[in-house]
Amino acid sequence: MEKKENEKLTTSISSNELKPRTWLLYILILISIGIVFYLSYSAVTYLKGAHDKEKSKWEDIDKEFKNFGEEFDKDSFNMDFEHHTGTESSTSVGWLLDDVITSNKKNKEKLITVVFGSTTTSDPEEIKNLKKQLTKNKYEISVDYDEKGFVNKITIEELE
Question: Residue 146: which of 107, 118, 99 has the closest Cα?
């Protein structure tokens, strides 16, 4: 009989000890799940931030590339006209007017106006007529630019 009481006592003690341990196990499982969610959230947030930074870098590079392309277009357009600025011979002014005629025929959205004496025009035929009026040896050439930086006006003045 003593054995049966001993077994009951052992069994009842064991089951009483298990109840607090079960709750402790549940609490540890919940804490572990919370830690996993927190770490997952932190990893996703970190990766998203890294992705956004990388995306921002590529957007900046793309913007710089576009700006470079626009600057290159502007410089290559202006180059044909800017190298004639200053004091030039009638031959050089004739070449400049040829460049303006060609540009105005090809580029209707970037017309260049020529000012010579009392004439102001961007029409290629009128510019050809201006070329015939070059009778002096030296001329002073100046250029003006539009708001985007493209040459839009060339002024030719006769020098004595």
Answer: 107
In angstroms, rounded to a whole number, what is the distance separating the alpha carbons of residues 55 and 69? 21
Asked if residue 99 lies in contact with residue 81, where contact means CB atoms within 8 angstroms, the answer is yes
Euclidean distance between CA atoms 46 and 37, whole angstroms: 14
Judge contact between 95 and 139, C-beta under 8 A: no
Compute the Cα dihedral for 29, 32, 36, 42 and give only its sign.
positive
Q: pLDDT tens-digit profile of 112-153?
A: 999 998 999 999 999 999 988 888 889 999 999 999 999 999
> In angstroms, what CA-CA distances link 109 with 4, 124, 143?
108, 14, 18
Q: How far is C-alpha 53 from the chain's CA centre?
A: 16
The token pair that represents 92 in the structure block: 């050089």
Please give the single-letter amino acid code of residue 9: L
How far is residue 101's CA from residue 90's CA, in Å, rounded to a whole number? 16
Q: Hey, what are 23's tokens?
A: 């709750």
DSSP H or E run through 152: strand 151-158
Token pair belonging to 29: 């499982």
